[in-house]
Amino acid sequence: MTAATATKVADCVIHKDGFLRKHWKYVVPLVLFVIGFVFLMIWLFATPTKPTFTLQDVTLLAFNISSLSTTTQLMSKLQITISSRNPNQRCGIYYDNLDVYATYRTQEITHQTAIPPSFQEHEDVTTWSPLLIGLDAPLAPFLVNPLGEDQAAGTVPINIRASGRVRYKIGGWVSFRHFLNVNCPAFIKFQNNAGGYSVTPAVLKYQLDGECTVDD
Questions:
Q1: pLDDT at 192 over 70
Q2: What does the alpha-carbon distance between residue 170 and residue 122 come to, in Å, rounded to a whole number?
């Protein structure tokens, strides 16, 4: 390489370096825009659909309502079967955490039971059977009158709920976490006993197969 050629190469390198330094404020946003646009196209053309949930059955091991001098207490023990279906054809779902519990109207009446983390293949169905337990939970005062109305009607409406976070897997790409809130309505029939209201017989299984609502 002659001295003249070496000088030209050095000038070219300096020119390119100077160009990058001068225009880096435009180059970096452009690169970020292209990367973001690519991910956006992947998301738009492969937008995952939320899983669907079905409450298959509820087995009542205990559901007793007792009225004390100052409070109304509810003791419940439920074994439920709930299933989740992944409707996506090219997308798997990571269930990072999912907590299941029962509510009466606006109040939780059982402790939250954690579902073990799992991965669900596309168009697959997963079934869980958690045990939900609530021991002598004091009923909120504003729910006492509605409970009396439900008692008179002979049916107590409860909701099986699940909340947690999921991620979607498309090929080698995994999305950020999405919140998931599931609500499954159910109805319990009972009769009036001397000590309060309780389920008869002592163990009662309801076949429901009811669709649940799923919100973000």
A1: no
A2: 10
Which of the four pLDDT bands, split at 50, 70 and 90, describes residue 2? Answer: low
Q: Please tell me the pTM assigned to this model.
A: 0.76
> Cis ω on the peptide bond leading into residue 201 (within 30° of 0)?
yes
Contact 92, 121 (CB under 8 A): yes
CA distance 90 to 88: 6
Nearest to 213 by CA among 77, 57, 29, 52: 52
Contacts of 164 (CB under 8 A, 6+ apart): 95, 96, 97, 98, 99, 115, 179, 180
Q: How far apart are CA 27 and CA 79, in angstroms?
A: 59
Q: How confident is the model at residue 112 (pLDDT cuts 50, 70, 90)?
A: very high
Q: Which residues of 95-134 are buried (b: 16+ CB within 10 A; e: fewer)?
A: beebebbbbbbeeebbebbebeeeebeeeeebebebebbb
Helix (H), strand (E) at residue 8: helix 3-45
